[in-house]
Amino acid sequence: MYWEKELECIDREELKKLQWERLQITLNRAYQVPYYRQQWEEAGVRPEDIRGLEDLPRLPFTLKSALRDNYPFGMFAVPMNQVVRLHASSGTTGKPTVVGYTQGDLDIWANLAARSLMMAGATPNSVVQVAYGYGLFTGGLGVHYGAERLGAAVVPSSGGNTPRQIMLMEDFGTEILACTPSYALFLAETIEQLKIDRSRLALKAGVFGAEPWSNEMRQSIEEKLGIKAYDIYGLSEIMGPGVAMECSYQTGLHFFEDHFLPEILDPDTGETLPDGEKGELVITTLTKEALPMIRYRTRDVAVLHREPCPCGRTLVRLEKILGRTDDMIIVRGVNVFPSMVESILLKSPEVAPFYELVVERQGSLDTLEVRVEVTEETIRSAEIKELEMIRRRLKHDLNSGLGISVEVRLVEPRTLERTEGKAKRVIDRRKL
Ligand code: DLL
């Protein structure tokens, strides 16, 4: 089912025309922002020099630091009396990154979130439980207004209070659960612990995002919750959840190109890469009013595919995001994303989908230790000798899969930290 069939299945030539019309408006809007004006003047480009979509690479990139340097509202392209909502992402250090929305921006966001939910099978009859955090984070309110726009019944449970979440799910007949994939696992684990009969739940699908998660993790969540798990992508600087979303064929996330223009960049050379090649995702907004973003470097590592999708949507597809360049750890010259470790670990049924990566420096050598919980079942049935065999096998799989030597530590069930929001996978002790 489509929310906006004429746009989701738009003819590609028509789409280009629409994008070009929208890009011109966006560039003129951005030119009113002193930051952009200065950047473009330095690069010797004016909005009228951009004569078609293919000229976009002439404009400089926008980095996250631009938002920080112009904290809090310096990047806004409209006066404050037109801004009706603010969100912010919690930077790990210093001031957060602040984003603003006009009424028009919120309207489009609700539409795109509704489009996303419908792709996961939500209908006006569905009960949608939003267990993303509400507040400055865009997850809660973003999905919330999408579900309302769709006409579904929204349960704004926000993150946390896990037993109560489960009670609500059971009593309200929640069909669609929206939260981070790591919280979905925590919910599944709690359901098991509370010995709740899964047949008493009406859950059908999950709309999971805000952090990288592997296909193996998807399988694990689907089995534990008895649902179909969909991947939703977004980021506050661009809008929030609903920038790209999987359809039921799950062959990548349809990127909502009628509102956002994607490019894939070689992060080292700054060159644009062709479809099918892995690089950093760069996004230009096409309809944002309060905060137009021109060639924003997301730091997310992604691949684009343009082959037709059996669902009929013509929008380009984003392969599941591998991770953020910030989360990528370089151990002895080899790039490792936590999602790669996750894929390898979860192929072994003896371990649970709870893990962390600890990087340390011994002398001048970096070491990587992977800590992973074993399942209750493993603890019950395996002898110490068998545990050691499991550990060695995982170590071997990781060593050959990642191409570096890794230490593996098996830990007891429920000893690693659980999260209501985004999981923290990497503990980097080298920076301390
Ligand atoms: O996480 C928005 C969101 C909320 C998306 C709920 C999906 C669901 P930020 O807090 O600004 O916004 O974080 C954005 O999270 O650049 C990615 O690195 C990561 N991310 C978001 N969705 C996915 C995903 C929200 N589906 C940053 N897969 C992004 C992998 C994701 N990473």
Describe the fold and architecture.
- With about 425 residues, the protein is α/β, with parallel strands linked by helices.
- The protein folds into two domains: about 70-325, Rossmann fold; about 335-430, ANL, C-terminal domain (GMP Synthetase, Chain A, domain 3).
- The protein contains twelve helices and 21 strands.
- It has helices at about 5-10, 10-30, 35-45, 65-70, 105-120, 140-150, 160-170, 180-195, 215-225, 340-345, 375-380, 385-400, and strands at about 85-90, 95-100, 125-130, 155, 175-180, 205-210, 230-235, 240-245, 255, 260-265, 280-285, 295-300, 305, 315-320, 325, 330, 335, 350-360, 365-375, 405-410, 425-430.
- The chain has a nine-stranded mixed beta sheet, sandwiched between helices.
- Strand 6 (about 205-210), helix 9 (about 215-225) and strand 7 form a beta-alpha-beta unit.
- The mean pLDDT is about 95.
- The structure holds 5'-O-[hydroxy(phenylacetyl)phosphoryl]adenosine.
